[in-house]
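To whoever is on call:

I kicked off a structure prediction for a single chain this morning and the downstream step that reads the tokens threw a length-mismatch warning. I double-checked the sequence; it's 454 residues and nothing unusual in it as far as I can see. Pasting both halves so you can look.
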Amino acid sequence: MFFHLAWQCAPSHAGDMPDQPLPPLPPAPVQDLITTVLRQRFGLSGLRGQQPAVIARVMAGQDVLALLPTGAGKSLCYQLPCCLRPGLCVVVSPLLALMDDQCRRLQALGLRAMALRGRFGAAEQRSLDRSLQSAGLQVLLVSPERLLSAAFLERMIREARAGRLHLLVVDEAHCISEWGNTFRPAYAKLGELRQHLPAVPVLALTASADPVVERQILAALQMDAHSVVRTSINRPELFYRVHRRVSPWRHALAYLQRWHTGDAVLFYCQRRLETEWLARHLVTVGIPARPYHAGMGIIERRAAEHWFLQAPAPVMVATIAFGMGIDRADIRLVVHAAPSSSLSAYYQETGRAGRDGQVATALQLLPPMHNPHWPDPDSPIMQYLHSGDCRRRSLMAGFGEPFAGACGHCDHCCPNWRPLPRWDGHDLAWVPQVGPVDGATGGTRTRMPDGARF
């Protein structure tokens, strides 16, 4: 039975187990029910990693900060308890464009779910009241801005006082640190909920939190250090490679054609124009690609998201606006055309590859000259990219986790594994100036910015 695993499993490193005693085992009938729900609703024979420890705490009404890598099944840590206990679970999500898709996935599991993305006016209040009273709503997806609005918060306080609100989930909890002081200040204010809903336990979920981000999450959500359940951040299926060239993108696309034809690929660019320009280039050489960035309309973005999830071998050329919540497990290659904003962001973005457990590649392009728009040269992400040590050991050290020896699965430890092809200038049909098309005759073409030059 899976709850026994939480007490019996041997941690792979010191941080693999929670710091405080786990709740007592549930009675045998409850364990049998859990096994049945796992098999019938989720198609699973059991849980893995630290899922048992997190779920045991959630079922016991304890606060939890779960630091689980991408692909470790974070969503199941609240979905399973919602199947087993009455009442409402509120999930705070930053993924406004994907809330409807998340809601449909929950409904497919047999959970009565609803998403609130827009304003919380009189019509939305009536709809929510009907769902709570007559339909027995189990999961409510909501943005942090909506959750903190006075009318919505008052409604949740009533639910909590009536004993019907059993869990508050903060998904992508690292956004408290990375976004809290920029364009999503509501994330930094989520700690106010503890004053209004003191008896409601909180489950915070994230795949990437270095020690600084972890402390910021705990402080914002008013949790103590004993609330943390973590597992190793090591993703052994990922091959980490940093590629330095004067014209790095040419070699990266040759690499894509040589090793990843027919694979799902994510190609991260720094600027919106770069995504459109590069996606068009890829299409000219027969690679199915689409751009994605925050400047696109919501209908365009939703169409691109659906295409990426459904197409057999899509290449999404995107800014960091794309990625969170994308439920595709077979991404084989993630390329960064510029350094990520932080080591945590890099880990989060590269972690979208290989979620099915099969070998995948994280390829970082790094022109020789430092760009003033990049992070500080002394920052952890730049130290990692310029390190001459094992990539995996350097990456894990940035999160305070030791890794002994050489990983055997990065460009330093195994430089000849899937080497980058030599580009001779004839294997790709380059167009030197391509940009947004305007007018019936094809319109003007725009030269790429210098920072993105091939």
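Update from on-call: the warning came from a stale cache, not from the record. Cleared it. Sanity check on the structure: The domain at 238-397 is CATH 3.40.50.300 (Rossmann fold).
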